[in-house]
Amino acid sequence: MTKALEKSVGRALLVTARLHRARMGERLNALGLFPGQEQALKALQPAPMTMGELATLLRVKPPTVSKTIGRLSLQGLVTREGGGRDGRLVQVALTETGHKTALALDAVWTQVEEELLDKLDGKERKQLRRLLRKAAKGLSKAGVEIDDPEADGDEVDSDA
């Protein structure tokens, strides 16, 4: 490996992201889920939404959401229903089992987050979050918002 690659922040971020995804995958597998499905479940936890709204929120294409929701539906975690005045709009909602699974995801996320940040103190954790948000802004295209309500505000985290 070249010295430039060894010092690359992008490569370090990629390696960390892959390790995080693998660890999440292990934990999600124990719940019968695949990576990506947890995001849909957590997005639907507060309230039902249309497939289009879910695709926008998750920043994926509609066919990706359709595939994910199809799988979650087969697992009995979500339901799809024609909604409102326009029968073409499909509302997606969590089932009772889906709500329980979404709640269980909080513990999974916390466990993996603790592993990820285990070697960092509170100040370093806060600094890392701030720097990653700043880097994400640098990569984002004009007009694309980062859907993180805390991205510009002061953090009030217990580990800060």
UniProtKB/TrEMBL annotation:
Protein name: HTH marR-type domain-containing protein
Region (Disordered): 139-160
PANTHER family hit by this protein: HTH-TYPE TRANSCRIPTIONAL REPRESSOR YETL, TRANSCRIPTIONAL REGULATOR, MARR FAMILY
Origin superkingdom: Bacteria
Biased segments, Acidic residues type: 145-160
SUPFAM superfamilies, A to Z: Winged helix' DNA-binding domain
Signal peptide: none
Matching CDD domains: HTH_ARSR
Molecular function as annotated in GO: DNA-binding transcription factor activity
A Gene Ontology biological process term: response to stress
Domain (HTH marR-type): residue spans on this chain: 1-137
